[in-house]
Design a protein that fits this description.
Arc Repressor Mutant, subunit A, 230 residues, globular, Rossmann fold, 6 strands, six-stranded parallel β-sheet, DNA-binding response regulator
Length: 230
């Protein structure tokens, strides 16, 4: 994390996976970085909840399938606790189109990564999610969201969308289509900072925990529909 008026500070990461070798590999990679500290490990969802409450990490790398309490239930326990509002959860999955990934994002996870993600991408991911970006493996985002949005319930009218300006609706739709702030800026011919400001204001108005939830809201409200993605 970075202090507003100070130097860069260490990003505190917790690991939750029932496979010891997976945790060891992630720990070795993360601990070698000067700006990242691994503050603890958990072998199941219940241990993960206890660890997060005790250590208050910035990011939790959470496996979906774990004994005792699975990653989805553990994630809901974290994101549903107001005292843990600053903790970001990144789900780990073996398969790109894991059937639980979309539900994980709806549960409040900031995104997901496949376990065979390249080391550099994992490091970028940890740093990005702390900065408030939605985290989805490159090349998977659009087709995954389309896949699971198509299986989700029919969109219901969202009264909260009435509070958005026309530009904010437009920006929200582009976020829902998987565009980054830079891509949104190019599409709308505005600066990246302006695009980021529109995204932030939209999240505040809708009470979205992070960018990933904004994507889900875009689909659930019908602002974006499956099949619109290129």
């Amino acid at each position: 994390m970075r202090d507003e008026d100070g130097p860069e500070t260490v990003i505190r990461v917790a690991l939750a996976d029932d496979q010891l070798l997976v945790r060891a590999g992630f720990r070795a990679l993360l601990a070698a970085q000067p700006d990242i500290e691994v503050v603890g490990e958990a072998a199941d969802g219940e241990q993960a909840l206890t660890l997060v409450r005790e250590r208050r990490p910035d990011v939790v790398l959470m496996d979906i399938r774990m004994p005792v309490l699975d990653g989805l239930a553990a994630t809901r326990g974290i994101t549903g606790d107001p005292t843990l509002g600053e903790v970001k959860v990144v789900m780990l999955t073996t398969f790109e189109l894991d059937e639980y990934v979309f539900e994980a994002i709806r549960s409040g996870a900031s995104g997901f990564l496949v376990k065979d993600t390249e080391p550099d991408e994992l490091l970028r991911a940890v740093r990005a999610v702390v900065g408030g970006d939605a985290l989805l493996s490159p090349g998977v985002t659009r087709r995954l969201i389309a896949e699971f949005a198509a299986r989700s319930r029919e969109p219901a009218p969202a009264a909260a969308l009435a509070e958005l300006t026309e530009r904010e609706r437009e920006v929200m739709a582009l976020v829902g289509m998987g565009l980054s702030n830079q891509e949104i800026a190019r599409r709308l011919v505005v600066s990246p900072l302006t695009a980021k400001t529109h995204v932030s204001r939209t999240m505040v108005k809708l009470g979205a925990r992070d960018r990933a939830q904004l994507v889900v809201l875009a689909y659930e409200s019908g602002l974006v529909r499956p099949g619109w993605l290129g």
